[in-house]
Amino acid sequence: MALYNLNINGKSQQVDVDPNTPMLWVLRDHLDLVGTKFGCGIAQCGACTIHLDGNAVRSCQLPVSAAEDAKITTIEGLSEAGDHPVQKAWIEHDVPQCGYCQAGQIMSAAALLAQNPSPSDSDIDNAMNGNICRCGTYTRIKAAIHTASQNL
Amino acid sequence: MTTVNTKLNRRSFLKVSALAGGGMVLSFSWLAGCKPAAKEELLAMPKEWFELNSYIKIGDNGVVTLMSANPEFGSNVKTSMPMILAEELDVDWKNVLVEQADFYPERFDRQFTGGSQGIRQGWKPLRTAGATARQMLVLAAAKTWNVPAGEITTTAGTLEHKASGKKAGYGEMASAAATLEVPEEVALKEVKDFQIIGNSKKNVDGQKIVTGKPLFALDHKVEGMKYAAIVHPPAFGMKLKSFDKSSVSGMTGIQDVFSISIFKDDYQRNFFDTTTFPEIIAIVGNSTWEVMQAKKALTVEWENAPESNFQMAGWGGNTSTVTVPAGLENSARHKERMAEYVHKSGNVIRRDGDPEGAFKKAAKVLERTYSAPFLAHNTMEPMNSFADVKGDKAVVYGPTQAPESIMGTLVQALGIPKENIQINLARMGGGFGRRAYSHHMVEAALISQQIQAPVKMVYTREDDMTAGVYRPTYSATYRAALDENNNLLAFHVRAGGIPETPLHANRFPAGAIDNYLAEGWDIPSNITIGAFRAPRSNFIAGAEQSFLDELAEEMGKDPIEFRLELLKRAETNPVGENNDYVPSRYAGVLELVREKSKWNAPQPNVSRGVSAYFCHNSYVAEVVDTVIKDNQPVVEAVYAAVDCGVVVNPDAAANMGEGAIVDGIGNAFFGEMAFENGKPTKTNFDKYRMIRHREAPKKIEVHFVDNGEEPTGLGEPLFPPVFAAVANSLYKATGKRYYEQPFAPQLEMQNLKM
Questions:
Q1: What is the pTM of this model?
Q2: Transmembrane region positions (chain B) (predicted)?
């Protein structure tokens, strides 16, 4: 066990955990930020996507020891009022079915748009291909990303 | 206007008398932590709530709370079912809050999500509950104003007596209405007068989902809660021999390791008591990560399980003995055994005319065999559950489609009476049939009982994918007899699987062909199976509709025209009895998809396949357009035509339809679970290929037939026909027929990229 100072959603937080603990479980079990979801544990499904210094990363493969000096953003901190253009577009297109993967999808989409404000269909396919949606909302996700892109 | 007797769902009115005059707030949620709605922040909360029946509470300020009784797994019943209540209650949707009900059979009918029956079976009870509450508000106003009830009208939460100019909001009359007797009969609206039904409403949980609020059982936490992981045998046909607790007892954060058994010896199982490994090991500790680490380090010995038996309660009070065979099974051997049935008779399920004689006379026989593998459900949220068992009281909060079924299992496993067990319903991160089998809740409850503390148990993805309850593997052989002029003389299907047949012998094309024979067979296995989106239909539709496509080609007919001819025959002069489809509605979706896809105006380089199917009381026809781009098959567009009667929430209905189509394309191309020596060969998403963004269709259109019929199923019916629409479209693109799912390996053998 060791103490780690983390910068999460603009707040500094301290946790006392094993250095190998993935950020996913630090967020969920220790900091009660449960919007970041557990899906596969091997970075294959994208449900646990968060931003590390603005880049989309899979938190299930990010040990807490590697996250200490970075700026971490989770779905809870993407916007203060839940009105990030991606979140608004998700509501406009009524994207979610079960909803479980959507936080990860939104975090991947927001990171994509931050780097590429006007992505093409194939840019979207490439950036989002790591996020599985078992309910199959892919066509709506794509439409919502295009809408968000216009409202950045 | 239709008049209905409110006795239909008396159960939902039981509490009204108990509340009479009290106007008390009745909270039947044991888990306050899971409730706050984003909308609540926008609506002013009333000082007092008045409950008119189990589903409806009205605040003194006119805000309305509607209870959503069915478990939500993504089909959006939490929005659409309250819409039905709101329609007949006649309120403004903007003033409605929706709350997830817990499992409460004394108050709610049929708290089950599955079989695409939520809207169909909820339709009348929910309309009646809404209309009854509205009528009670009308009667309260009539009494207060001293005017005839028949002269009072309602609009969007307001009562009005035009002649006297009196007007009041529902909130002003709610207190008086709650004291009235429930009227014996109430009037329901005409379909044409619907204001809310048929007008798309956003998902009531949408804002919570996009902001990451806790909604799922996996998100639940209480003070003093422990975390648990499980270890189950690595293969079907194996069981626990022993484990060495000391191998992990020194690890950080680990509190206890013990084994649990789901069933007591003399327990008679129910239909949904399917669990692959009735004895597993539980590891309890302080955090998910710590128990997952211990799980990897635990020393366990497994052994081969002998053949075993258990008693199962059937429908209508019968019991049967179920045998679980011994042995470690292999997919290669499964295929060999299924292939034997191409030329081996099964059980005759239906025979019309003289099929054997007609085949003897045939000038030509077309025979094709189709197969599909086992499939894992792979819900994005792995199996998990929260449980808090102390003494003779239990609270279980988990993702389940079938709380009523698991209640009996919990009672026997815990030895606690039903009255002392509270099951709360979490939003599910996917279901697809898998969570009708909710033994994860029993496992969590047994772990909590052992440690006498609240616990959250979670499966790893590997636990989830290798724990069984799969879609079975199937095979079907179709034969058609043609005369020298290519007229269809006879039709024969022989279909089976491990361990069940997928046959629906009374469905199309039964009823359309004079000489028809349907046979079924099955091969026992210890690999557990369960409902998977449109059970049996999800295979047989693809086989049948692929065969009809090839048959139409053989007969020189357009595939839609050929089906319409058969349906005309079934409508005008049906063969046999018990044909369980309406030919005109079936034809209706084929005609609609022909129009919407512009079937008769094909585009160059676009390969099209069509398919249609009836299941879950609904009719669906689909056209899939494929193009080969950069040596890769790309699904460019999918057109679906659906007849499911009245569509309650059209945009959400289209969303679910789109999802079913994507699910079908994914499983047609990639879906497969295989076994070596009883071991599932795929354990996580690195090996089990799921459809992803790149493979999703570029465009999907879902069109609904507008016929005002009572609503029927929707979550499943769009799924089964996709497989054949894909196969038939690929045939046009590559010149090869696809008989064996998944299709990707065969496409790769044709040097196409997948």
A1: 0.95
A2: 12-32
